Amino acid sequence: MMNLKDILALDFAYLDTFSTRTDTSWGALFCNENQPNYYDANHAHISEASYDPISVIEEVKDFYISKNIIPRFYIYNLDVQQDLLALLKSNNFGYEEFISPVQLWDNHIIKVEKKEQTTIEKVTEENYEEALEIECSIKEFGGKEIMQKAFEQQFNHPAFTHYLLRYDGKPCSTACIFEHNHQARLESVATLEAYRGKGFIGELIQFVQTEMTDRGIQKLWVFPINENIEKVYQKYGFQTVDKLKTAHAFLGGKSLKDIQG
What is residue 252's DSSP assignment? Predict the structure, then answer.
């Protein structure tokens, strides 16, 4: 298994591109006041044991409430967080747990049948709106309000590259790559509902794998939102190297499971 600190270091680098991080003695506070409903940009991130969980909860509540943002926790290493978890539940926080697979590409470019009508291109100012429309239509990403701002931030950040797949000239699918220290993370793989089941995801992933090989990327990661999506990526050369048990505690608003459907 991969070291949790290594996984979180890559995750922090990703979060740092769209949220301001404040490191604390117990973890980190992430905040983006311009996107208060974007959960990944606004949460307390805890992976070490909390020796004074009451103070941690009060610090997090004060921080986010002062900014009119709902207090949220993303919590790892649940075995050593039992006191914190019990207090969150007794303090009226909503609570949910996840099994979060961590997958690493095996560096073998997959073989998929490429359709003659399919083309794949990088997202530029010319096709920006077409790619944005696809991502805004995917409810698992959080909806139009969140994705419009998130997509704009990523598009303007040098660590991200977005791709758009067309079929017969019509935009159908998107994918995104985040690069950091010779590693990359595959994000935002999505297909419009009318075009699903036609193998477009495989074509996109094959294209991305070729790009990463040409650019000398040493490791290509993916973090599926659940075990069903994990099985999809396994078909395309991604091996599960770890499974993180994580928790989300929240003092209002929707749960992540509600958003992801």
Answer: S
End-to-end CA distance of the chain: 29
Task: Please give the structure tokens belonging to residue 180.
Answer: 């950091």
Asked if residue 43 has pLDDT above 50, the reply is: yes
Q: How far is CA 153 from CA 14, 85, 159, in A?
A: 12, 33, 11
Given pLDDT bands bounded at 50, 70 and 90, which one contains residue 176? very high
pLDDT on residue 88: 97
Instruction: Find all residues with CB under 8 Å of 261, minimum gap 6, and list them.
Output: 139, 140
258 versus 119: which is more confidently predicted? Answer: 119
SS (H, E, C) 140-196: HHCCHHHHHHHHHHHHCCCCEEEEEEEECCEEEEEEEEEEECCEEEEEEEEECHHHC
Give me the residue label for tokens 């099994």.
Answer: 99
Q: What residues does 178 pair with on adjacent strands? A: 160, 185
Candidates 259, 17, 56, 13; CA nearest to 138 is 259
